[in-house]
């Protein structure tokens, strides 16, 4: 059995935003269709815990409707009294999506989707220099180095998720170091060129044995 990790094309080079450009609150990004098993509602619960502790943040939900509608999400945000710190931005594509990545400080993807494989959105976040908080579903532990390029948290555990988000909000240096490490790991392992090179090596290995 040969394994070949996915890769994505490099985007136009942009300098990573300095934390000073977000002087007031940390910008948290969730980017996926609004599917419950992708962790949408778990993240909402975590945001409520952060708000209860009076930790300043802004959380941006980017993606189209899934089994959670915009109306349902807005209703839950209102009931949790999170209107001041959560934004529903809808789907974004291309350069607009890339800019949202660059305007963020950390990426959160608390998925428990049973068929999760190798989420390319995590690679996109790493390419943008973002630390990533996700779970041990699918091949995600092969992408994120826990404690170095981000954190892996227990699925459906809003408390654990909130604690890791809080740690990165409060520790600007850790957030920046993890973002730099994530971008470096992307460039060394998950570009389209590296994917193609690995695939050719697999074919060569197989053909050599024929």
Describe this structure in words.
The protein has 210 residues and is an alpha/beta fold. The chain contains eight helices and six strands, in the order βαβαβαβαβαβααα. A six-stranded parallel β-sheet has the order 3-2-1-4-5-6, sandwiched between helices. α1 (40-52) packs across α6 (158-170) and α4 packs across α7. The radius of gyration is 18 Å and the shape is globular.
Write the layout of secondary structure elements.
Blueprint: E1 26-31, H1 40-52, E2 57-62, H2 70-79, E3 86-90, H3 94-102, E4 106-109, H4 120-127, E5 132-134, H5 140-143, E6 150-152, H6 158-170, H7 172-189, H8 192-208
Parallel strand pairs: 1-2, 1-4, 2-3, 4-5, 5-6
Helix pairs in contact: 1-6, 4-7
Mean pLDDT: 93
Written as H for each helix and E for each strand, in order along the chain, the element string is EHEHEHEHEHEHHH
Radius of gyration: 18 Å
Sheet with the most strands: spatial strand order: 3-2-1-4-5-6
Q: How many DSSP E strands?
A: 6
Q: Main beta sheet: strand number and arrangement? A: 6 strands, parallel
Helix content percent band:
40-55%
How many angstroms does the end-to-end distance come to? 15 Å
The total of helices stands at 8
> Judging from the principal axes of the Cα atoms, what is the shape?
globular
Uncertain stretches: 14-22
The secondary-structure class comes to alpha/beta
Q: What fraction strand?
A: 5-15%
State the main characteristics.
single chain, 210 residues, alpha/beta, six-stranded parallel β-sheet, 8 helices
């Amino acid at each position: 059995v040969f394994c070949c990790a996915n890769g994505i094309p490099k985007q136009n080079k942009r300098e990573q935003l300095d934390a000073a450009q977000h002087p007031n609150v940390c910008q948290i990004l969730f980017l996926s269709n609004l599917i419950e098993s992708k962790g949408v509602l778990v993240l909402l619960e975590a945001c409520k815990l952060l708000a209860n502790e009076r930790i300043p943040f802004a959380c941006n939900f980017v993606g189209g409707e899934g089994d959670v509608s915009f109306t349902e999400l807005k209703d839950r945000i209102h009931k949790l009294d999170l209107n001041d710190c959560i934004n529903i931005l809808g789907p974004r594509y291309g350069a607009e999506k890339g800019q949202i990545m660059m305007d963020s400080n950390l990426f959160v993807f608390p998925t428990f989707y049973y068929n999760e494989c190798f989420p390319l959105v995590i690679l996109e976040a790493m390419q943008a220099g973002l630390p990533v908080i996700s779970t041990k579903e699918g091949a995600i532990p092969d992408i994120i180095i826990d404690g170095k390029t981000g954190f892996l948290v227990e699925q459906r555990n809003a408390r654990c998720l909130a604690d890791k988000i809080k740690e990165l909000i409060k520790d600007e240096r850790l957030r920046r170091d993890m973002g730099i490490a994530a971008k470096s790991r992307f460039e060394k392992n998950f570009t389209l060129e590296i994917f193609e090179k690995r695939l050719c090596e697999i074919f060569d290995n197989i053909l050599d044995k024929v």
